[in-house]
Design goal:
By secondary structure, this protein is mostly helical. The chain has one domain (about 5-265). It contains 9 helices and 5 strands; from the N terminus they run ααααααββααβββα. The strands form 2 sheets. The chain has a 3-stranded antiparallel β-sheet with strand order 4-3-5, with no helix packed on it. It has a two-stranded antiparallel sheet with strand order 1-2. Helix 2 (about 30-45) runs antiparallel to helix 3, helix 3 (about 50-70) runs parallel beside helix 6 and helix 8 (about 190-210) packs antiparallel against helix 9.
Length: about 270
């Protein structure tokens, strides 16, 4: 056990994480697997210090609230496109928070590098948050987004699609999350701009990879492109384009990795 943590402190951290994750599960924000993953990520982060925990809680609450605003409208708009609904499962939780949790472990084991690891972890989580807010804002917008790959209009919820409201949500989300990480004491004020840029870079990378390389499938019955293995009409879909193994969860993880790497490139 590192000197900066005690067994009692770790137990308390995981207890608080379990309480918050349990509330989120009961409210429908997490699936059962997502509940367990959230306890793991949350407990690990809180074990590294209160500032780590406060920022993660704010991030999760803001992302959950953003997904619940206009939820029915967004579900109707994306029902035949996205592979997963509003409940976050374990893969989604780890894709968004895995790097942040690993940085928290690193801060516990290597306290001399805690400040650097906090910057890297925040960069990853801000990127995930910026991408989430871009998606939620763009999906709530009643207009249709356009594809970066083709330049044409595509169905709402399509990966690699952009809209003005979604882009504004991404930038504003990255800035607000970066400010929050400073207010919670996780990063210094002179690094807010760096973290904001890292968040935007990660979310942009997510969109670019989603447009060109993310796996897409085709429903021969509806003659529509989708991410669903079995389309909402009941038809088993066929591989269409992109890399078959590169699903949305892996793209989201790449988003956080780019956010973390950008912090380092900017000179954390």
């Amino acid at each position: 056990m590192p000197e900066s943590a005690t067994w009692a402190g770790v137990a308390t951290a995981f207890g608080i994480a379990a309480l918050i994750a349990g509330i989120a599960w009961r409210s429908g924000s997490l699936s059962k697997s997502g509940l367990l993953a959230a306890i793991l990520v949350g407990g690990t982060a809180m074990s590294a210090g209160s500032s780590w925990g406060r920022f993660l809680v704010f991030w999760f609450v803001s992302a959950s609230l953003a997904s619940r605003i206009g939820r029915r409208q967004k579900e109707r708009a994306t029902a035949d496109v996205v592979a997963k609904g509003g409940q976050r499962d374990a893969a989604q939780v780890l894709a968004n928070g895995g790097i942040y949790a690993l940085c928290a472990v690193g801060a516990l084991v290597l306290p001399a590098q805690a400040a650097l690891l906090a910057m890297v972890g925040v960069g990853a989580l801000v990127a995930a948050g910026a991408d989430t807010l871009a998606t939620e804002t763009g999906t709530l917008w009643r207009g249709r987004p356009w594809s970066l790959r083709t330049g044409g209009l595509v169905p709402t919820g399509s990966s690699g699609a952009v809209s003005l409201p979604g882009t504004l949500g991404m930038v504003l989300g990255a800035w607000l999350l970066a400010l929050t990480s400073q207010f919670t004491g996780l990063i210094p004020a002179d690094r807010v701009f760096h973290v904001t840029l890292a968040g935007i870079a990660g979310a942009t990378a997510d969109t670019l990879v989603g447009a060109w390389w993310q796996a897409r499938r085709w429903c021969p019955t509806c003659e529509r492109e989708t991410e669903q293995t079995v389309h909402q009409c009941g038809t088993t879909t066929q591989p269409w384009r992109g890399l078959p193994w590169l699903d949305n969860d892996r793209v989201n993880f790449l988003c956080t990795a780019v956010g973390a790497a950008t912090v380092l490139l900017l000179g954390a």
